[in-house]
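User: Here's a protein and a ligand (iron/sulfur cluster). What would the complex look like?
Assistant: Let me lay out the input and then the predicted complex.
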Amino acid sequence: MEKLEEIVAPLLDWYRANNRRLPWRENRDPYRVWVSEIMLQQTRVEAVIPYYERFMERFPTIAALAVCEDEELFKLWEGLGYYSRARNLKKVAQVICERHQGQFPEEYEEILALPGIGAYTAGAVSSIAFEKAKAAVDGNVLRVVTRLTQDSHDIMDAKFRNQVTAELETIYPAEGRGDFTQSLMELGAVVCVPNGEPKCEGCPLRRLCGACSSGTQLQYPIKKKKAERRIEQKTVLILKYQDKTALRKRENKGILSGMWELPNIDGSLNEQQVVQWLTKKGLNVSKIKPPVSGKKQLKHIFTHIEWHMTCWIVTCENEGSDQELIWVTDAQLESEIALPTAFRKVYQLFFYSS
Ligand code: SF4
């Protein structure tokens, strides 16, 4: 490709005629743009839409988000995963209220200084909400650019990302900067798609694209293999006493920090070992069984870790003496408590088993 700047006009024309009507595109309010960008990290657009609408209805302003209860926030977030995103949203809302009088800061550096906001999100908010010439380079954009230019750099390399960001920022148009950012994202999401053949026949950049003209689309982007996920064995317990289930809080560090969890133990324990563990906590066990035959093991995948969970349903005769355990009803678990998906999957097994 001769010059990267040749992509600007056709991309803008295509985006303006074809972009998907998404709830966060109704206006350019920086708060709405920011929340959508955070929700869209690691999550598909279709999955985000109902969460986004509920979130905006409940927290229509930065001020409303800043004073919300954590439990309510996590409940709204339940199922989206990566709860640190929700925690950071609230933290940022508080910082904006304290340091910026509740107004989203306009300058890129100020946005980047907010907790949990990286170069991608800062670029997206700066350009979409404030029309700054700032690029937002994620996997979608890197795929488009490396195919266009047939670039064989590893897209996981931060230096290369910075280089692409800097190059794109030199071609930002004088007008329509927010649209330009979104046009690159949109092309990567719906035309120059991952996992399989891109839809080059409908691409506005077809005539400019190196990979398309040489038929090498699937060779790009180059991505070095990620390190293997670490496998952790866990024994997860559905402890029932009368109509209640035991929960406890996770430590305020590491994966799912501070979230509710079903009681669990490292390793894959058999019935006797589980009963011994519970007895030490002052719990009398009247019955222990696997959830359903053949479904004792469940797997949950996080970014870097895989949990292989051995699950047991335990009927108890008392609440025991462990101060960390709280006992909640099914109704409370459904309506008030945000239980991360890994544990909710296990908890659901109880209903298939009863
Ligand atoms: S022509 Fe094909 S490979 Fe090139 S940018 Fe468009 S969709 Fe991607």
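Summary: Residues 144, 147-148, 191-192, 198-200, 203, 205-206, 209, 211-212, 217 surround iron/sulfur cluster (CB under 6 Å).
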